[in-house]
Amino acid sequence: MANNPQFQRLSPEDRQLVRQRLREWNAKTPQEKETIRDREEILQSLSPDQRKNARTLFFEYRDLPPGRRQAVTVAFRHLRDLPPDQRQGFLDSQRVREQFSPHERGILEGLNKLLPGSHPPDANDPEE
What we know:
By secondary structure, this protein is mainly α. It has a domain at 64-114. It is 73% helix and 0% strand. The protein is built from eight helices and no strands. Helix 5 (66-81) packs parallel to helix 8 (102-114). The radius of gyration is 19 Å and the shape is elongated. The chain starts with a helix and ends in a 14-residue tail after the last helix.
């Protein structure tokens, strides 16, 4: 970084922030790095509207009480691990209806739409 002109043009505060983030990245386990890369790959595959929806869902998720966030996280991990054709059945299950509020189910529904293989058909696609 010391020889990188772009880095040198940053303010001292921004250079310190870059260094801190690099230290944090280097401290992560290979599994944590892989998870971050996977998430980034998913985000890059989303359309601008889907990214906007993802940001909205994140804020809704973040505003849940910690215990409910944990429950939604567990359900989302299960949903993510299911084949795409089984995800809606999980979301419609009595277990999910009983365990989650309508708002929480809405968050899970929105997350489901962002998962690979769950993209709705493009209405402009003549093959659909």
